[in-house]
Design brief:
Number of strands: 8
Number of domains: 1
Distance between the termini: 29 Å
Number of helices: 8
Oligomer: single chain
CATH topology: Aminopeptidase
Helix content: 40-55%
CATH architecture: 3-Layer(aba) Sandwich
Strand content: 15-25%
CATH superfamily: Zn-dependent exopeptidases
Length: 239
């Protein structure tokens, strides 16, 4: 085997798992909007891109990692799914931040695709599924049912691994653990592979927003996600 070919082979072998990180929103779709004070606003789309970039930095040392967007642009849910197919992603991780009319709501939570009967979860679903309307909702409900059958066990295991790491990483910055939850998210169904939707904290809570903005939070959260994904892949691979 020629040296250059061996180098390529070893590189591909070392990056056997492909992970697609999906920074939520983008372009005109700003996502949730938080206020640091009367004059300074913070857009969820910017926080998502920043956090996804940090997760990518921690993961790309050991895995092949792609982003659905690397700058502020609009990406439809179908486009995000198409990218997952194009790069042949093994895992799909959608990065978001939460918002609530209850300005005291706080904490981080991790979602995987499955049926649920929780009214509080349905509020998050409504917020994250806002891009799909009319006939698309009906068509994709069928797709969700099929995808759940194929991916729910792997997605749940991934959620538990990632959230397990996040619990420890978030304690020093004081972000409350809201748990692992199941929800009906079209972006996860469309991706047709094991995946998560992360809600890293509430931009509607001014105190939490100030914490979210800090570099320490971003680094700790990103490392927690990366370590959780590694834990999942290691366990999946076996001894």
């Amino acid at each position: 085997m020629r040296p250059w070919f061996l180098l390529i082979f070893l590189t591909l072998s070392a990056h056997a798992n492909v992970i697609l990180l999906d920074p939520g929103h983008g372009g005109e779709e700003t996502g949730a909007v938080g206020k640091l004070d009367k004059s300074r606003r913070v857009f969820e789309k910017d926080l998502c891109l920043r956090l996804a970039g940090k997760i990518k930095h921690h993961l790309e040392k050991t895995h092949t990692v792609f982003l659905t967007r690397s700058f502020d642009r609009a990406v439809s849910l179908q486009e995000r799914a198409d990218i997952a197919d194009k790069v042949k992603a093994d895992l799909f991780i959608s990065v978001h931040f939460n918002s609530s009319t209850d300005l005291k709501a706080h904490g981080f939570e991790t979602y995987y695709l499955d049926n649920n009967h929780d009214a509080a979860v349905r509020k998050v679903e409504k917020q994250e599924n806002i891009s799909l309307k009319g006939e698309d909702l009906v068509v994709n409900q069928i797709l969700i049912d099929l995808t759940i059958q194929q991916t729910v066990q792997a997605s749940r295991a991934l959620a538990l691994a990632v959230h397990g790491q996040l619990k420890g990483h978030m304690k020093p910055v004081g972000i409350t653990n809201r748990g692992v939850k199941k929800g009906l998210f079209y972006v996860l169904a469309l991706s047709k592979r094991p995946g998560l939707l992360l809600e890293a904290g509430f931009v509607s809570n001014m105190k939490e927003l100030k914490t979210i903005q800090q570099e320490e939070f971003m680094e700790r959260y990103a490392l927690g996600v990366a370590n959780g994904i590694r834990d999942y892949l290691k366990k999946k691979k076996g001894p």
